[in-house]
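Aim 2, interim progress: modelling of the glutamine-bound target.
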Amino acid sequence: VALERIQALEPKLHSFLCVTAERALEQAQQVDAKIAAGEEISILTGIPIGIKDNLCTKGIPTTCASRILENFVPPYESTVTQKLADAGAVMVGKTNLDEFAMGGSTENSAFKLTANPWDLSRVPGGSSGGSAAAVAAGECVVSLGSDTGGSIRQPASFCGVVGMKPTYGLVSRYGLVAFASSLDQIGPFARTVEDAAILLKAIAGYDSKDSTSLKVEIPDYTANLKPELPKGKLRIGVIKETFGEGLDSQVEEAVNKAIKQLKELGAEIQEISCPRFRYGLPSYYIIAPSEASANLARYDGVKYGYRAPDADNLISMYARTRATGFGTEVKRRIMIGTYTLSAGYYDAYYLKAQKIRTLIKEDFEKAFEKVDVLVCPTAPTTAFKAGEKTSDPLSMYLIDLMTIPANLAGLPGISIPCGFDNNGLPIGLQLISNVLREDQLFQVAYAYE
Ligand code: GLN
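Predicted structure of the complex, ligand included:
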């Protein structure tokens, strides 16, 4: 069914960079055989899944939507995709993204533009726009994305699906092509909170191949999913600073209505101030490009990927490969990052950004002394028209205002649909919890859903 839908919808949606139909059918047949033989199967057996194309898949191209990796076929498998394959999930293809996950609309892909299934003239959000659109349109049941500054939660909000960024270190990043290593996390997209909880359980857990991986027990995230919240026991804090200027009035209205509903479900609601929240955006746009400039140094035309032809020496080969292989936004970030890390500017920019990061963490720590879960909009607006922000990178960066702080602090966050605007476009509600309290996020999200 998923493959049929892909065939029917892809000409309009372009969620996938590559569809692995043959391999998927083969796997599906194996699943059928298993079931026929009465073998035990897992909850994910036979479930069609889309994988963001910055996750390495052995023998299947992994391009990061970049010319520089156009012909790259990884010789190894990422931990998350291996875990899903072991659980019997069937990958139907690799989904489109902003080049190297840098962007908020999937328009920075070097290969195609993905449309928002709710309105084809609008963007699906980004950078995991392909994964979000594919789930929203039923081209797969669930999918994986990566979130460095909002790239799972924001497209989930724009496409009307559930998207979740786990605690930093909960899910192994082995085989995820690095953008900003101290911020990157892999997480699930699904149509329901329960499906997202099931998928997270399947991909989470310690991995010796990722040095930042946490050694923790993975709970059953579905255990606490009830239609109501324990009366007066769950304290939810509304982040004051995320309301007001810049927030679309229809988004504000829908989020306020959702907060009221959470109260009716049994939560105790209070207002919380995170005064340093708004400095998250400028500090992120120093830290992320700094790390990216270091991580992307490996694409030099020597080891793998694209190599520019007709260079006459090594230096010009490097230069031409990078000049023609990377897109505009990636080059912009490499330049910003190289600048902010260079001698003389390091203290003024990078170090200062790191200090702000610590202050934002403190804001959250204080907040979690008073409440269990924080709530705010996922994005200040609903999906915008394709092309609307492409000539103005700053306006594109501004959409990340509310998602970035959770990445800077390593906290888990989830976006769930909470209504529609007057154009019929979905609106997202964001919940953020303390480190490793994914269980509480799912609990509140499920009760609301
Ligand atoms: N939009 C943000 C950026 O461009 C976030 C990207 C992400 O989370 N991968 O950096």
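The chain has 14 helices and eleven strands. Residues 101-104, 127, 147-151, 179, 288, 400 surround glutamine (CB under 6 Å).
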